[in-house]
Amino acid sequence: MPTTEKRRSTRIELDYLKVQLEWTDDNGLPRHQIVSCMDISQIGIRFECPFPFSLGSYVCITFNPGTDIAISVTGQVCRCATQALDTFHVALQINLEDAPQDFGEMN
């Protein structure tokens, strides 16, 4: 049976590109972790992580951390799904107001 695509924008596969996450934990402490980014679209990012995030959490993702071409965007967790081998696939909805000016114009 054919399925209908529900996504509003095309995903670009990133082949598990390493990115840096930054967030505040439940105790108000700043945290950071290097994780594998799976894909990105105009409105979202999906990454693989060794622990879950709560829905609604805010996370900052930095591409090319520690370089002159580092780019950071902020997003809100909209999905967190358990995968095999105790990993989690986490989806963020990107806050385009905080994104670089040309980021929202990706095709």
What would your notes on this structure say?
With 107 residues, the chain is mainly beta. The chain has one domain: Thrombin, subunit H (Beta Barrel), CATH 2.40.10.220. It contains no helices and six strands. It has a six-stranded antiparallel barrel with strand order 1-2-3-6-5-4. A hairpin with a 3-residue loop joins strand 2 (30-40) and strand 3. The termini are far apart. 14% of the residues are buried.
Outline:
This protein is mainly β and 107 residues long. The protein has strands at 12-24, 30-40, 44-49, 58-63, 71-83, 87-94. Helices cover 0% and strands 53% of the residues.
Secondary-structure blueprint:
Layout: E1 12-24, E2 30-40, E3 44-49, E4 58-63, E5 71-83, E6 87-94
Antiparallel strand pairs: 1-2, 1-4, 2-3, 3-6, 4-5, 5-6
The chain-level structural class is mainly beta
Lateral arrangement of strands in the main beta sheet: 1-2-3-6-5-4
The value of Rg in angstroms is 14 Å
The H/E string reads: EEEEEE
- The number of helices is 0
What attributes characterize this protein structure?
107 residues, Thrombin, subunit H, six-stranded antiparallel β-barrel, 0% helix, cyclic-di-GMP binding, PilZ_domain, PilZ domain-containing protein
